[in-house]
Amino acid sequence: MLRFKILYLERSEINEIGFAENDRNCVQLQASTIDGRRKGACLFCQEYFMELYLLAELKTISLKVTTVDMQKPPPDFRTNFEATPPPILIDRGMAILENEKIERHIMKSVPGGHNLFVQDKEVATLIENLYTKFKMYVTKFESADTKEASQPLMSHLERINDFLAKRGTRFLTGDTMSCFDCELMPRLQHIRIGAKAFRKFEIPTKFTGLWTYMANMYELEAFRQSCPADQDIISHIKNQLGLRTTARIELETPIFTTSIPIVAET
Fold first, then answer.
1. 3-state SS string over the chain?
2. Rounded Cα distance, 135 and 140, in Å
3. Which among 116, 131, 146 is the end of a domain?
4. Quick one: which of 98, 94, 121 has its CA closest to 110?
5. I want to staple 29 with a disulfide (CB 3.0 to 4.6 A). Which of 18, 67, 89, 117 is the partner?
6. Where does the record place the CLIC N-terminal domain (predicted)?
């Protein structure tokens, strides 16, 4: 059984996931920018957390997740990694620091990891640039015609919805999870929470294929355990894109939105 030391992601209070008894994979995330304790909303952190969690459920690895407050990193983190931001994966004393290298390591070196990395060019093309369109939408000057501004994002979501409805599977490439789901779902959650917070945009309830897919993802512990609070998503987007919000999110009780519209349940 392969042993991982630490994957540094965004900080949170996360308990050890004891699926295996001996060897251990440790994951560290970047901390919440609000309180320095909850897991933050780094997309790559959640993506790799989900992939490793799925493998831990299968008992091919053991997994321990910890977090790092990058505003006040612990001395051992500063000594070993200086200002390198999470995610960081440590496997048997070897630190993997870059996103592409972490993904390649999970695929090639983690037991069972290759099963997550299926080949599907249609899906890869389908989900590409979705988050870029979301960022363009929320940073664009808010004109009177917000519907026109949201059109590229809306059109892309509609394409994903139509693809899912036509394919008729629980997940993007079939009825089992793949790396594409771990990539897409955190971004959909950011879009759901962030677009509503900054532009009062909501994913249309008529996109039943997309909502059914999100409902399937919400049922998974891999997503629930890795999902940041709504407030942390808003804070992450605000800080990353230089946006403003009148909400005092730092004073709010953390909320984790995983409900779906009633119309999408039918």
1. CCCCCCEEEECCCCCCECCCCCCCEEEEEEECCCCCCCECCCHHHHHHHHHHHHHHHCCCCCEEEEEECCCCCCHHHHHHHCCCCCCEEEECCEEECCHHHHHHHHHHHCCCHHHCCCCCHHHHHHHCCHHHHHHHHHHCCCCCCHHHHCHHHHHHHHHHHHHHHHHCCCCCCCCCCCHHHHHHHHHHHHHHHHHHHHHCCCCCCCCHHHHHHHHHHHCCHHHHHHCCCHHHHHHHHHHHHCCCCCCCHHHCCCCCCCCCCHHHHC
2. 8
3. 116
4. 94
5. 67
6. 33-106
State which residues form the domain around 106.
7-116
Give the end of a domain, one of 99, 116, 133. 116
Cβ contacts of 112 within 8 Å, gap of 6 or more: 55, 58, 60, 61
pLDDT, tens digit, 9 for 90 and up, residues 57-94:
998 888 877 788 877 888 877 778 877 888 888 777 77
Q: CB of 258 within 8 A of CB of 228? A: no
- pTM for the whole structure: 0.86
User: How far, in Å, CA of 212 to CA of 260, rounded?
Assistant: 8
> Is the same domain home to 51 and 160?
no
